Amino acid sequence: MSFLDHLEELRWLLVKSSAAIIIGAIIAFNFTKFIFDTVIFGPKSGDFITYRFFCKIAQKYDFDQSFCMTELPFELQNRTMEGQFAMLIWTSVTVGFIIAFPYILYQIWSFIAPALYDKEKANAKVFIFVSSLLFFIGVAFGYFILTPLSINFLANTSISDMVKNSIDINSYIALVKTTSLATGLVFELPVVIYFLSRFGIVSPEILRDYRRYSIVIILIIAAIVTPPDIISQIIVSIPLLILYEISIYISKFVYKKQEENE
To answer: What stretches pass through the bilayer (predicted)?
Structure first.
């Protein structure tokens, strides 16, 4: 295929993916009450499942009990006339993206398949299943773990008793959406490493050499988003460290297969 033919294929990938997201957004639009009241505003409630879980751990091991509360010290407010409508639309689009993610992966696979071996092309179902599973696990981890930890930490951070927290709804929802989506994409690290290794961009040696720096970065991120207790930091750090180690083995597997093929 020529360069222009590749661009045409890429254009159709974007068109089909956008259409799938719009369809997903329309579906989400019909469940807005559940999406906002139960899902998005769930971490604002002191009775949220994550807070209750961490509260039990803190009480059992006598750690910081900042999660044991009945209500978070802030209220949400809308500051613009079109604010709630715009938030409704963009939140529906975000949910539509999550719903359409497996189909988007299929389109991406169709685009890169010509550069793969025949045996690799036959693994399309495995690729879509594994990638989708990692993404949904990442979104769940971001929503149930990172988002409540971040909201609890930021809501209870105060420079003075004279300052009251009246949070703009755009700021709150942006935190929930960004954290959940970003974590879902981060959990795609093994899949990304597979293709980077497949095309010779990274190698197991490079990943091993930078392991110590990666561990430090992961621990710093965990320390920032969690309360000052070691249990919360470990809970956040472990999945990311496991993903990095899995990526090293995946890269090693890819290089070994390439040597056998050669």
So the answer is: 12-36, 85-106, 126-151, 171-197
